[in-house]
Every structure is written in C-alpha cells, then in structure tokens.
C-alpha cells in the first residue's frame, strides 16, 4: 500500500469497520448444518478429522485449526464448546446445555472466521493499492468490508473465510516472485500453496492459474534457468501434496453422488444450458448478493457491468492487470467451467470464492475508470478563452469525481440492504440465508419435556440435536432419510417409527409420554410426507415452535398397533 499516515489511517479505519460489522450478532443464530458438521469433525476422533466425512472428504487443515481453537475455548472455562451429547445437569428434565450462555459457544467458534475476514480486507487493500493505485485499493477493500458474501462467510464456522483470505495473500506472494525472488520466497510460496490446498480443494484453480503464469514467464526469459528449476521444484512439491491428500480421502470424493458426471447421464444440450444459465447467475449474482433475489438481480447485473469496465481498464494497463484479468480470473473460470461440464467439480457458489477479491477489485477499478474517463487529460484540450476553458475543465473533473462517489455509495447502500444480519433477514423478503436456528426450538421442547417423552430426529436435524441437546441419549430416536418412491427407504422409516412406538409403550408414564418430531435442513417436501407416515400410527401432530428453518412438532401418544 502507498506509504503515508493517511493511507495507514484509512487501512486501520477499514479494518475496524470490518471487525465491527462481523462481530455484530455473531452468536445470535445457532450453528447450522454445515457448521455443526465442521465442529463435529474437529472435536471428533483423529481419523475422522484427518480423513474427512464421507459426504465430501474436505481436506484437514481447517479442522485441525478448529480443534486447536476449541481447545483454547475450553481452557478459558467453556468446557461445552465443541461438545456433543451428554447427560443434562438435572436428569429429571432434558436441557439445552448452552441455554445459560446463549450465543457464547457460537460466537467463539465463529471468531476465527471473523479474524480471517478482517485479514482479507487488510490484504486486499495492501495488494490492490500496490498494484493498481491507492483509490482502487481502498475502494476494493471498502467493498469487501461491506460485501454480504464476505460478511456471511466471516460469520460461519467453515473454511470459506480462509479461501477468501488466501487469494490476496497468494497474489501478493506471486507478485514478489514475478519481480525476482530468492529461495526463501519460493519456500514461503510453496508452504502457502500447500496450506491453501489443504484448506479447500477449490484453491487448486488459482494455484494452477498463477503457477502457469510463473512457468510461462520463466520459459520466455532466456536467462531464467534458475527460475525454471524453482518452478519445476514447486510443481513437484505440489504434486506430492496432492498425492498425500488423495490418501486422506480426496480420491474417494470422486465417488460422492453430487460430484458424479452429469454430462454423460443427461445430454449435452441440457448440460450446456445449465452452464450458460445457472453458471452465469452463480458468477454474476452470487458474489454481490448471495441468497438474494428480486431487486438484487438488477443491481447485481449493474455491478457486473462495472466489473467488466474495470477488467478492460486493468487489461489495458498491462502488467499486473493482465495477470489478474487474463491469468487469474479468466483462467480460473475456464478451468471451473471445463471441469463442471463433465461434472467433476461443481461450478461457482462457495467453490469459487477465490474470485471474490478479484471481483471487488474489478468493480473498484470500474468506478475509478468511469470517473477518470470524464476528466480532461493534461494538457487541457479545451481552449483557454478568458480562462473559461480551464474553469470548465475543473468543473468536469469535479463532476466526474462526484459521479464516481455516487456510484460507489449506491453499491455500498445496496450491499448493506442485503446484509445477512438479523433483523435485515426478517425485514427483507428477498434474502434467504441458509440458517437453521435450532437453539430456541430445542429450548422450547426442553421446557415442556416430561418423563417418558421421546425426541424423533429426522435426518439433517441430528447434528443440531447432538450439539445442543443435553438430555438422555436414550430418549433420542433417529429417523432415516426416505424417498416416497423408494420402498426400501419407506420401510426403514416405518421400522424406526415402530421402534419409537414400542419404546414409548414400555415406559410407565400415565398421561406424560409424547413424541417430538424435530426438523432442520430438510427438503420442503419431506415434512408433509413425514406427517402422513406418522398418521398411519394415529399420531396427529402440531408445530409448536419454528425458527429460521428449524421446527419441532408435538405428537400425541402413539396407540398400540393392531
């Protein structure tokens, strides 16, 4: 970043603002499905931590770091951080263990992502200011500070905040290597690259793009034999890292259903329509306004035009602009599209978060370019008649500056309107943040709990129950996922319900025994089908409480089966 007290003060102000925004309401929503799985992995057995979950086989570095973060929290006197299951303090009444400390566990677990989010703002300001000038750098950092997507992932227990932070750090290190580097710089870049791949597999795309640029430069330079050797050594080291990750489950990832080849299972026209339609919306709309619709779509397309203007401006500037636009952005998009066509890797969304920082840089460059495009370039081409030409040129320059400020301010206001914070989420019908606020749901169930009751937990709600519920684990009955058209899955559901009914009948309870159906992270069509399944057992139900994608229904005592 450009040296000087003003630049340092601006950077401190941006980081302070970013921290305040990300700390706001940090512990208010309870942990949702993806966060809970990450916490379970980090706090679970070492084998699960290193090899990952069967659903995705994510690399282990984030889970290792989170395990250490959980250990620090426990040392500070919060033993329930990262805990799953266990007996309630009062055996006569099931309880939500964190009810006495609402939001503390969630806030602590998310705090590491907050730190990464603030670091991303600082690194973006430093890198973009050094490469493209102070105005572009500070505006890009301000956009990232206010970005709904950056805020959301800075408040989530997941590796996506690290993905965003890794991008400007990789670009800074790449610039250093491009300017001529020593052996220790290559070692640092290699360590950073290994850490990036071990954090999220999606970062392989920017690493391939930047590595290809370094290789291209070294082979074009007739005197760069030392660099050629270092590029080759770097490539060999990354191959070893990928081989190790394959042994930790990356190879098994290819067997996961949601990354199976779609092209060969459908047809080319359908797949290309998916890439051209959904893929475009993921790139253009998701970055500025995730989980949003309505007016956000129009604003997102306007910002994409600004990003395109910025891309042209940086490309015409040559040097670092062409590396960013041509090698990084265009290169990573080409790779993600190519792999998505055959279904090897899902396009866009969270897997393309490495392009969020370049996106805000392009938007910032577009705003600056629009202002500069209206200013008279020196020498002033307007005729100096009685000084009016110079005066007119000054007014054009002021109007251009004011116009660029208005455009930037409008983008920031739009960002604030789509922040994923409460009460914005409730007040804006166009925001659909994937939250499942299970904590108040289970607290209400615990308050009405009687001896002999049972908790029926359907599929995705199991992780939340394991984390928040502190009742007797024998009272919890897991219901398997099912498909109405699949006789085997329906039979498994019927068997689980029959077991629940038999278990409740064996408990002397008088008027007390009831069942509670807990849902979260469920398909919208699952609940009515579940209700019909339960009706077969004569168990009418009524929703007693729901909150942001989570709900609990009370079921009357199940009668004996005929």
Overall description:
With 562 residues, this protein is mainly α. The chain folds into two domains: 5-30 and 103-424, no CATH class; 438-555, no CATH class. Helix content is 61%, strand content 5%. The chain is built from 21 helices and five strands. It has helices at 5-23, 33-43, 46-51, 61-75, 104-132, 134-146, 148-154, 160-178, 183-199, 204-220, 225-253, 268-284, 295-317, 320-341, 356-373, 388-417, 424-427, 438-447, 462-468, 487-505, 526-535, and strands at residues 454-458, 476-479, 515-520, 541-547, 550-555. The chain has a five-stranded mixed β-sheet with strand order 2-1-3-5-4, sandwiched between helices. A hairpin with a 2-residue loop joins strand 4 (541-547) and strand 5 (550-555). Helix 5 (104-132) packs parallel to helix 8 and helix 8 packs parallel to helix 10. The longest helix has 30 residues, at 388-417. The protein is globular, with a radius of gyration of 27 Å. The model is unreliable at 85-100, 376-382 and 384-388 (pLDDT under 50).
Outline the fold blueprint.
Blueprint: H1 5-23, H2 33-43, H3 46-51, H4 61-75, H5 104-132, H6 134-146, H7 148-154, H8 160-178, H9 183-199, H10 204-220, H11 225-253, H12 268-284, H13 295-317, H14 320-341, H15 356-373, H16 388-417, H17 424-427, H18 438-447, E1 454-458, H19 462-468, E2 476-479, H20 487-505, E3 515-520, H21 526-535, E4 541-547, E5 550-555
Helix pairs in contact: 1-5, 1-6, 2-4, 5-6, 5-7, 5-8, 6-15, 8-9, 8-10, 9-11, 10-11, 10-14, 13-14, 13-15, 15-16
């Amino acid at each position: 970043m450009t040296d000087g007290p003003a630049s340092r003060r601006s950077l401190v102000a941006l980081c302070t603002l970013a921290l305040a925004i990300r700390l706001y309401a940090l512990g208010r929503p309870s942990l949702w499905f993806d966060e809970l799985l990450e916490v379970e992995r980090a706090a679970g057995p070492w084998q699960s931590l290193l090899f990952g979950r069967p659903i995705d086989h994510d690399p282990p570095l984030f889970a290792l770091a989170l395990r250490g973060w959980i250990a620090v929290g426990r040392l500070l006197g919060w033993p329930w951080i990262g805990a799953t299951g266990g007996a309630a303090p009062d055996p006569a009444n099931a309880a939500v263990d964190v009810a006495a400390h609402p939001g503390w566990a969630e806030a602590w677990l998310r705090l590491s992502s907050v730190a990464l989010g603030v670091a991303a703002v600082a690194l973006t300001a430093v890198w973009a200011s050094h490469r493209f000038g102070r105005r572009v750098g500070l505006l890009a950092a301000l956009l990232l500070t206010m970005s709904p997507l950056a805020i959301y992932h800075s408040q989530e227990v997941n590796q996506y905040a690290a993905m965003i932070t890794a991008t400007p750090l990789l670009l800074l290190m790449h610039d250093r290597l491009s300017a001529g580097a020593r052996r220790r710089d290559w070692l640092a870049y290699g360590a950073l690259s290994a850490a990036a791949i071990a954090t999220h597999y999606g970062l392989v795309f920017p690493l391939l793009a930047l590595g290809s640029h370094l290789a291209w430069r070294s082979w074009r330079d007739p005197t760069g034999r030392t660099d050629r050797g270092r590029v080759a050594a770097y490539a060999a080291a990354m191959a070893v890292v990928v081989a190790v990750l394959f042994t930790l489950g990356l190879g098994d990832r290819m067997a996961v259903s949601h990354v199976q080849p779609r092209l060969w299972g459908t047809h080319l026209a359908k797949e290309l329509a998916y890439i051209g339609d959904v893929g475009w919306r993921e790139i253009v709309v998701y970055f500025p306004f995730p989980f949003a619709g309505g007016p956000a779509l129009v604003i997102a397309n306007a910002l994409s035009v600004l990003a395109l203007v910025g891309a042209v401006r940086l490309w015409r500037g040559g040097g670092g602009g062409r590396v960013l636009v041509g090698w990084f952005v265009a290169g990573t998009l080409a790779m993600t599209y190519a792999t998505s066509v055959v279904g090897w890797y899902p396009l866009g969304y969270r897997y393309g978060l490495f392009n969020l920082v370049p996106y805000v840089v392009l938007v910032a460059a577009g705003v600056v370019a629009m202002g500069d495009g209206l200013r008279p370039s020196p020498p002033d081409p307007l005729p100096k008649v009685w000084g009016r030409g110079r005066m007119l040129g000054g007014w054009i320059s002021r109007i251009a500056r004011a116009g660029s400020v208005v455009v930037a301010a409008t983008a920031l206001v739009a960002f604030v309107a789509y922040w994923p914070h409460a009460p914005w989420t409730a007040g804006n019908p166009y925001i659909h943040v994937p939250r499942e606020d299970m904590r108040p749901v289970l607290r209400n169930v615990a308050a009405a709990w009687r001896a002999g009751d049972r908790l029926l937990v359907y599929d995705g709600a199991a992780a939340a129950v394991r984390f928040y519920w502190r009742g007797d684990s024998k009272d919890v009955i897991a219901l398997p996922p099912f498909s109405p058209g699949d006789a085997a899955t329906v039979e498994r559901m019927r068997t689980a319900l029959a077991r629940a009914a038999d278990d409740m009948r064996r408990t002397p309870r008088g008027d007390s025994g009831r069942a509670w159906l807990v849902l979260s992270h469920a398909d919208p069509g699952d609940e009515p089908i579940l209700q019909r399944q339960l009706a077969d057992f004569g168990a009418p139900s009524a929703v007693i409480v729901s909150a942001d994608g989570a709900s609990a229904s009370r079921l009357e005592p199940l009668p004996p089966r005929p």
